[in-house]
Write a structure and sequence with these properties.
- 2 copies of one chain form a homodimer.
- Chain A has one domain (about 5-120): Jelly Rolls (Sandwich), CATH 2.60.120.
- Chain A has 2 helices and 9 strands.
- In chain A, about 10% of the residues lie in helices and about 45% in strands.
- The N and C termini of chain A lie close together (about 10 Å).
- The longest helix of chain A has 6 residues, at about 5-10.
- The interface of A and B includes residues 23, 69 and 70 of A.
């Protein structure tokens, strides 16, 4: 039961489209990711997904509209709804979704991350208490 | 499926210790609350609870130690662990927990909120899209 700081966590990695698990609770994962560019169109068969922007501006494209998210904005994408995140600049993103949710949902390709990284809390907080 | 902005949501109410539901997904709630002062000692029988500080400094007291959280810090309090949040100054707090989680856990008193407020997304975002 260790605290973690979002700014510190985001400063500890540089890779894009590679979600990291930062907390696990009630069968859910809190993940963080840096993203830049266009992702793949996909949906999640049985998982709702919450996006919360920590830094930057993010577009979430749907087949019939686009939602623009800036820092502090959040959006729930319900299960089954096809979407594509697009970041014209680097975005720091927090995700809240069931454990085991695949980043590419129903699509499997080179961007699919089957084993997300996981932060060790003692490593990230830098304290032993 | 409407976006909401944390800063706007927090600016829309003033009451303390009265969590508001701002998102629901996968049987979980995202809630926000403003808190000031000491809460009651309690635990949640079967719910883990994530605290994420949006603004201010929060102490979470446990029977054997205290964890201090500042803006951007998060902490998961596992089910069954007795704790007491204390805010010497006003804190804006984000919570992730299962739908139906009572704020006072195993304790029922005048601070128990059985029906948390719920933000209507269209009302909070001020846009129709």
């Amino acid at each position: 039961m260790e605290k973690a700081n979002l700014t510190q966590l985001f400063s500890s990695f540089d890779d894009h489209w590679s979600p990291k698990i930062v907390a696990e609770l009630n069968g859910q994962h809190v993940k963080i990711a840096k993203i830049l560019g266009e992702f793949v169109w996909h949906h999640h068969e049985s998982e709702d997904e919450l996006f919360l922007v920590h830094r930057g501006r993010l577009r979430i494209e749907f087949r019939d509209r686009t939602v623009e998210l800036k820092e502090g904005d959040m959006l729930v994408v319900p299960r089954g709804v096809e979407h594509r995140p697009v970041a014209d600049e680097e975005v720091e993103l927090l995700l809240f979704e069931p454990a085991g949710t695949l980043n590419t949902g129903n699509v499997s390709n080179e961007r699919t991350v089957r084993e997300p990284g996981r932060f060790s809390p003692t490593a990230t907080t830098g304290t032993g208490s």
